[in-house]
């Protein structure tokens, strides 16, 4: 099956977020309004029954993309479409209606669960907020079954600190499923978990994707896990997408020099997650996002940089494999490779 075949759930186009920089006394005297260019001109499409990975090093803007897609942040520019319909919500009832269909899973399950409340409380609340309480006991059991916390009665009255990290993340996933969503935005859902249980949680998400026909955005700094888990992979650098395509092609045949650097510095995919920690960064330093490099943002670190790379922003160039593209001047027709 190609990437284009299933129904589109959620799309972003031109998605941009600039955060104002807190101004010091000196800045107050100048007329400049500095901003952090966290996310610029992102285009992405989430489809039913598909995992789309968003890969990039720490600080590249991945979480900001997830929060924009979840409508937790207002955007500076761009459009978000749910089933083709442009939608902007800021809090209130409209937000709740949106969140029923688009749920987020956070990196740190301990921080996202309230330590003073039990599993039962968290899941009941999610079901009630989204009007799905119905036969509450049965629905609670179903949610825990779905995330393979069985038998459910062993977990329902536990507090977050009584669970392992993996079990807590499963509760967070169950809570998200309480809304019966169409899309899950999973922001580094396994990067805080012990290596030995990461695969189990990814396999659970994959199983849920298939059984519930979910569209999943999988955010990670670990390109090896994208290859394992995602159908499509998008690579982000310093707030911009630089490459995309089916995961197999992007990881086996990376076109953008940044993707190549990520792959070269990634651990062996057969030992998924063993060496991968957020602090494992590709060589060189990511740029300042207050004054990002002109042209291609990667050019100061790029071994192939040409003069125009520092002046002109590269558009997406289509590559031979269908759906594979790179925003890199190396792929301009007639460019010397
Ligand atoms: N609320 C905020 N206010 C100001 N700057 C922010 C805020 N959130 C993120 N940033 C900045 O935006 C950039 C991208 O951050 P983030 O989206 O968290 O990246 P990632 O998830 O890839 O590590 C970083 O430079 C970060 O410091
Ligand atoms: Mg993040």
UniProtKB/TrEMBL annotation:
Highest taxon of source: Bacteria
Region (Disordered), start-end ranges: 269-292
Transmembrane segments: none
SUPFAM superfamilies according to UniProt: P-loop containing nucleoside triphosphate hydrolases
Pfam families hit by this protein: ABC_tran (PF00005), oligo_HPY (PF08352)
Domain ABC transporter: 10-263
GO biological-process terms attached to the record: peptide transport; transmembrane transport
Keywords, alphabetical: ATP-binding, Nucleotide-binding, Transport
Record family assignment: Belongs to the ABC transporter superfamily.
Protein name: Peptide/nickel transport system ATP-binding protein
Organism this protein belongs to: Kribbella kalugense
